[in-house]
Amino acid sequence: MNICMPIEKDEGLNSVVYGHFGSAPYFAIYNTQSREMEVINNGNLHHTHGQCSPIAALSGRSIDVLATGGIGAGAIERLRTMGVKVCRVGSGNTVADIIRILEQDGLKEVQGNDVCDHHSCH
User: Fold this and answer.
1) Predicted confidence band at 4 (pLDDT cuts at 50, 70, 90)?
2) Does a structural domain hold residue 53?
3) Which domain holds residue 29?
4) Which of 5, 31, 39, 112 makes a 20 to 30 Å CA pair with 60?
5) What's the predicted TM-score (pTM) here?
């Protein structure tokens, strides 16, 4: 399974999950089977709210789960149509924390009204 997490800095498993999917500087994709991680630069970091395309930065990569602090309704819908489960995680969690939570079946899928309507919502 591949889990994607928006991160602010590439610090390996100690990378802190960023507060908002669309404006994250990087994305970490962790493969739970191989235990390997890839970090991708979000080339669409600076944008007007609702006009971002961070999913384009993830193009060509297989993702099963996205764990993020905040995300807008449009991005959730696009990810779900791609078969990606979108989960909300608390602030301050590292990639290692999220992996532990996932392995304990503790990630909760985002519900309909649990979305951001601006970048600083979380």
Assistant:
1) very high
2) yes
3) 2-109
4) 112
5) 0.83
